[in-house]
Design goal:
Aspartate Aminotransferase, domain 2, alpha/beta, Aspartate Aminotransferase, domain 1, 7-stranded mixed β-sheet, 2 domains, binds pyridoxal-5'-phosphate, 4-stranded mixed β-sheet, single chain
């Protein structure tokens, strides 16, 4: 019997080889070939592949109970809610775990803001990615993803992001006075309905090119929101759960948003879990207005509890900061040797490096080519999707050791030597 190639049956492009198992930062295919994963799966494997504590917690829960209605109390979800309140900024005292992923967490956060303010419009940043439901496709700052869908959520407004390396306003960081916050006022006055409920931001853009806002940006944005009674939502789907070397990036930047959404890394080794963390004022959305069958799943909550118990340890977070600094140092060395690397930036283990041509223009083709050929050098890599798309991301599992970080950098060096000097 002819075996049909799976690639003729699925709707999306897939690799020609199958992956079979993973351990820590390493993934192995059917031939036993090993790859070091620079992007932690889908940026979600905070504790790497098959972390023993996560696997054990899930196995234990599997024997007890996999699913129960989210209206019934149970141990894993109770534990998750308590832990999330403990690790989140002080003012965020309420948890909504009945969401099925990052997109629905963000939608819930927006509904909460709309409910509390009585206003509807949502402000987001250029190059942002907040998910791919219809609403989050409308909110995300990327026209190419919106274009094929004519009937989107109408009340969205995208404003320039704090991308200092290629500033929208042509300013310099030292002297701009954070024009990118001041000018939001103009967009509100002239390009919106004037009825903004929320600003939603990724503290460091995930798909948009690892853009780290300059000092003072979030303080100014917080003040901007406070003056206008606009809810500030931090989408920490990528930056949360230790990725920046703090539990949440809000802590790194020294601001308290009104809402944080979390997903991805919360599942440790890939469990499907997400939550909305909010303050008392915003917790008024009726409970049945944003609930999903696979939200607050017991198996996934057990995984999240094991993950939080590890990530919240101060020495674990210190390790993320130190390893991140080490990798950034090595990338800076590589940048001296390869002029195509025009910027290296990041916080903790949320790192990106930008590729440019000799005239400084973004080199998207090179970024894509390197991401494609990385597997030949034992690396799994991804380039940024939005904006210029010329940024390669280094976001390995947070458990990466210094030796493994060096291995990652050595392989990257081999990749750059082979492809850039070719
Ligand atoms: C910053 C950010 N927000 C939201 C999402 C959407 O999460 P999900 O795919 O779980 O719906 C993503 C997914 O990549 C993301 O990176």
């Amino acid at each position: 019997m002819d075996v049909i190639d799976i690639r003729d049956l699925v709707y999306y492009p897939v690799s020609d080889r199958k992956v079979m198992r993973g351990e820590g930062v390493h993934l192995y295919d059917e031939d036993g070939t090993e790859y070091l994963d620079c992007v932690a799966g889908t940026f979600n494997l905070s504790l790497g592949y098959s972390h023993p504590a996560v696997v054990a917690a899930m196995k234990h829960q599997l024997d007890l109970l996999v699913h129960a209605s989210s209206s019934l109390q149970n141990e894993p979800v109770n534990g998750l809610v308590r832990r999330l309140v403990e690790v989140s900024p002080e003012s965020l005292t309420k948890v909504h775990p009945k969401v099925s992923g990052g997109s629905t967490a963000n939608e819930g956060a927006i509904k909460m803001a709309q409910h509390a303010t009585g206003r509807s419009e949502v402000i987001s940043l250029f190059r942002s990615h907040h998910g791919q439901t219809m609403m989050m496709t409308s909110v995300s700052g990327n026209a190419a993803r919106r274009a094929p869908h004519p009937s989107l959520f109408p009340g969205t407004l995208q404003v320039p992001d704090p991308y200092c390396f290629r500033c929208f306003y042509g300013q310099r960081r030292e002297s701009c006075g954070l024009m990118c916050v001041d000018r939001i006022e103009d967009f509100l006055d002239h390009a919106s309905t004037g009825r903004a409920a929320a600003v939603i931001v990724e503290p460091i853009s995930g798909s948009g090119g690892n853009i780290v806002p300059p000092d003072g940006y979030f303080q100014k944005l917080r003040a901007f929101c406070d003056e206008r009674d606009i809810v500030l939502i931090f989408d920490e789907v990528q930056t949360g759960i230790g990725r920046t070397g703090r539990m949440f990036a809000a802590e790194h930047f020294g601001v308290e948003p009104d809402i944080i959404t979390t997903a991805k890394g919360l599942g440790g080794s890939g469990a499907q879990i997400a939550a909305i963390l909010t303050n008392e004022r915003l917790a008024g959305l009726p409970a049945d207005e944003h609930v999903f069958t696979y939200g607050a799943n017991l198996l996934a909550a057990a995984a999240a509890n094991a993950t939080l118990d590890i990530v919240r340890q101060p020495e674990f977070l210190a390790h993320v900061r130190a390893t991140g600094e080490h990798i950034r140092g090595r990338l800076a060395e590589l940048a001296k040797r390869h002029r195509a690397i025009v910027d290296v930036r990041g916080v903790g283990l949320m790192i990106g490096f930008e590729l440019g041509r000799p005239d400084g223009t973004p080199d998207v083709e090179l970024a894509r080519h390197l991401a494609r050929t990385a597997m030949r050098h034992g690396l799994i890599m991804r380039s940024s999707r939005y904006g210029h798309g010329n940024v390669l991301k280094i976001r390995p599992p947070l458990i990466i050791t210094t030796d493994e970080a060096d291995l990652l950098c050595d392989r990257l060096e081999g990749l750059l030597r082979a492809e850039l000097n070719a």
